[in-house]
Design a protein that fits this description.
By secondary structure, the chain is an alpha+beta fold. It has nine helices and five strands, in the order αααααααβαββαββ. Strands 1, 2, 3, 4 and 5 form a five-stranded antiparallel β-sheet that branches. It is elongated, with a radius of gyration of 32 Å.
């Protein structure tokens, strides 16, 4: 069975996804603006309320503050008495200064209370509204698109594209972004069979629906190569042997082809948009996208299996993983 997308449907869906991502970013900023505006408004209301308190209520607050002040003075007196030598050093001038500070606090107690309320209001609002921050634009592809992809997965067994010539991986840009890529494995048959089909579906959707032709940069990675890359530092890889799904044929690093040349860097706006779409497609296929990690790896996707990491597979180092 062969599945395809109409050009008009592709354009409409691509426009829809672009609009949803943009709206997601706008909604996030709108929520923060609402929090800020609500904080200012609530602070003004609290301040007005304090100023309009009845005389009886003010007297009650005054008694409470007087009690608190008395206790603070008693504690201060006890502390000053126990310090002894410090009293002699500080002298009357120091004690007079401390007394002035307490007097200033007592005179401005209402202002102090209002200030504390203003400072606490944003924290309270953030705590209340934190669960309401919009995540629109980060969900999976809508259900109708998932249905099309599910149909692809149930259909024909897709065939890997022809390999790129070795010189495609020898350019200065490729070497700067991905060191040692020329020696990486791009043998599709070393990938896990289920993962390989999902990756091929992602390639088809990206080309037929979004107009991005993709290329496999690296698939299966031997334990020895993984340790070599880890030795180059976390900017290259922070995983050692058998800590990466590459050793099990369950991960791939991919990029884009434009005018016959590899485009890897996300600094290219065209490529960055492609990675966003690629992540959406990959996640709709049940794959994990590296673009959501703390150390973002936009071209990386993997199929996670419980208990796979941390132990060598049944095959020897560098041997073909089970398909």
């Amino acid at each position: 069975m062969h599945c395809s997308f109409s050009v008009e449907s592709c354009k409409n869906n691509e426009t829809k996804i672009t609009r949803e991502c943009s709206n997601g970013q706008i909604s996030m900023y709108e929520n923060y603006l609402v929090i800020f505006a609500a904080s200012v408004l609530l602070a003004l209301v609290l301040l007005a309320g304090l100023l309009l308190l009845s005389a009886g209520l003010r007297a009650r607050f005054a008694r409470v503050f007087s009690d608190v002040r008395l206790k603070l003075q008693q504690r201060r007196a006890a502390s000053m008495t126990s310090l002894g030598d410090l009293q002699s050093t500080v002298g009357e001038g120091g004690r007079s200064w401390i007394q002035k500070q307490f007097d200033a606090l007592a005179r401005n107690k209402w202002l102090l209370l209002a200030t504390l309320c203003v400072l606490a209001t944003p924290l309270i609002l953030v705590a209340i509204l934190s669960n309401q921050i919009s995540t629109e634009g980060y969900e999976d592809i809508p259900a109708e698109e998932n249905a099309v992809i599910a149909q692809l997965l149930r259909g024909e067994q897709l065939v890997p594209p022809p390999p790129l010539p070795p010189e495609a991986f020898l350019t200065q840009e490729v070497e700067m972004v991905r060191p040692m890529l020329v020696s990486a494995s791009r043998d599709w048959m070393l990938l896990d069979g289920e993962f390989r089909q999902r990756l091929l579906v992602a390639f088809r959707v990206m080309e037929e629906k979004h107009g991005y032709k993709m290329a496999l940069l690296e698939g299966y990675r031997s334990p020895s190569r993984q340790n070599t890359l880890a030795a180059l530092g976390p900017q290259v890889s922070n995983a050692r042997a058998f800590q990466s799904y590459h050793q099990f044929g369950l991960a791939a690093d991919c990029a884009f082809l434009r005018n016959g040349k590899l485009v890897i860097s996300e600094r290219d706006p065209w490529a960055m948009r492609g990675y966003e779409l690629y992540g959406e497609v990959a996640e709709s296929l049940g794959l994990v996208w590296g673009g959501r990690w703390k150390m973002m790896d936009f071209g990386h996707i993997e199929l996670r299996r419980k208990g796979a990491l941390g132990k060598p597979p049944a095959t020897a180092d560098g041997a073909e993983p089970a398909k």
